[in-house]
## 1
Amino acid sequence: MDRDDPLSRAADISGKLLVIAAAVVAAVILLWSLRAIVVPIFLAILLATQLHPLTEWLRARRLPSGLAVALTLIATTLLALVIVAAIAGQFVGEIDELADQASQGAEDAAGWIAASSGPLDWSEDDVKEQVTKIGDQIGDSTDEILKGVLGGVSAAASIAAGLLLAFAFLIYMLFDRGGAFRWFRERFRDPERAETVERLGEAAWSTLGSYVRGVATVAVFDAVLIGAALFILGVPLAGALTAIIFLLAFIPIIGAWVSGIVSTLVALAGVGVEAALIVAAVSVAVQQLEGVAVSPLVYRRRVRLNPMVTLAVVTAGGILGGVIGAFIAVPVTATLWAVGEERRRILEERSGGAASEGEGPAPEPAA
């Protein structure tokens, strides 16, 4: 068969795509099987991108390396405890009331939908039945996710073991000062390959650092503005809702929608329709302002993912790994994308250089 035939070319491309897809599936299965160690290492890398500059700053002040790492970890631990205490303080004793308020808001919304259904002629019971079905489906899916993630081990024990392992890796990374990466780079004897590895590593490190700083800034931005609106409107449990907004902001797109819906329902039940509409409008406006002005500034063009891609990877991460999967899906995808883009730039630079080197003086015309 002619290799230039369109059908033959399509068969060749399909075969290559199948091989690539099989390799990707095999890699995902391997990483999923080793998730007990892969996730802590990745979390440690995320933290190291933020703490490494502080450790280096302390070393530059002629502090011993061990003391610099210890001070960095102590300061970080104290800050984390303050944040956890502040957030936990908003939930203790209020989580049941928050659930009741959200449930009451859902019932009020069902009544309003039934009253405004127009030609659909929905009754309040019909709306509640549909909402209940959706809730049951979400609950069943969540149960299946948790069963797959926990694998028979208690959630508290798994989280504690993962955090301890991540902390141990973090200590090593801060002490190591990039020694492991330098060792890996030196395995490549070819200078061009060593340079490629170094540039790809720098791209990955920079992207992860930008992502962590960006998502934390966005979380504070959302919590401050939307939380201020909740307090001004006198929405019940405004403090707990602000904490939820801050936490869910670390799960792109989906987290913002979930926190906005919960806040709107609580405002509907606790204050009224006008307050609920204002909360919904403020939530949407803040999300739009974040996407147009805040995110491009704080991410500094390092994390460039299409919103549709972000939504897809967050959903896939949630299905595969629950909350942790949804959290790490975006930084992993953004890092892989940045590495691919840097690889493309390297190839373009070298192909351009090769073309320039191959160009010589124009041959003289034949006599």
## 2
Amino acid sequence: MELVADTGSQAYVELVTALLDSQGAASPRGFDTREILNVSVTINDATQAHVAGTARHFARRIAATETLHLLAGISSLQQLDLASNGRFSQFADDGRLRGAYGPRTRGQLQQLVHLLHSQPNTRQAYFTIWHGDEHDIATRDLPCTLGGQFLLRDDKLHLRVNMRSSDVFLGVPYDWLMFSRLQMVIAACLGVEVGSYTHDVGSQHLYERDVPQATVIAQQGVDAYTELTVPPALDERVNRDLMPWQNFQNITMMAAKLALGDGCIAINNSERWYRTNVPRLPVGEFRLCLTCRYVTHTADMAVDWQCDECSIH
């Protein structure tokens, strides 16, 4: 199945409608779903790759926190629990989300920006989230996203994200927004326009429990009179005197400071949305491990900048 739309709102309503009409069914882990295999959704303008203007109003706190975590290359279970009333803990192991995207992509993205700058026509600008050893590790948090490819063509940066599994009700509104914000940041660092965003997925599904709410989304469609408010992409700090990967590094550092509540930084209008919506962590009770990029929580701030797991290894 292939969908093409100008905005995420239009694409989302079409995708939800298609799943409501789908005859495909599956029951992984005993939960009944409606399913369509091999779905590709392309949103022509990635700056509009979100679902505002539909009856599916995403939780801004979750969207802001997940976006900052991806941009900063970090993960904090406590912060995501604060943003979601504790929903993320059900997927955690020993206080960590083992499939968190930030720590998995941190080392790849800066190299990717360098590659796109030095070889604009490259077909190798791919980042990997699924590492291949997931089935060998006992965890409750397997990444839904496999990876993504950036393509720079005609001075526009396009992004194609590949997912093994995608929940249209709970996952799509956040995935489209989070990855398209990353796309906007990298495009700004490269000094190019933002192109299309494509969402490729093996199993696009809708849980039966969410069918009543999905029906309302399909019936109401897109509110043409609603101004679509796009959360900013943290791209106003791009300095044209720096190389693209230096700008990207600076923006990731800024994203980490915003996420972790650094009160010393001056924020501009494009960053205020994140500062407003990301929940604050208790002052003095957390630290970021610079090796694994997980935020750990401790009252002992005298320890080294490594978590217990990294210190052992």
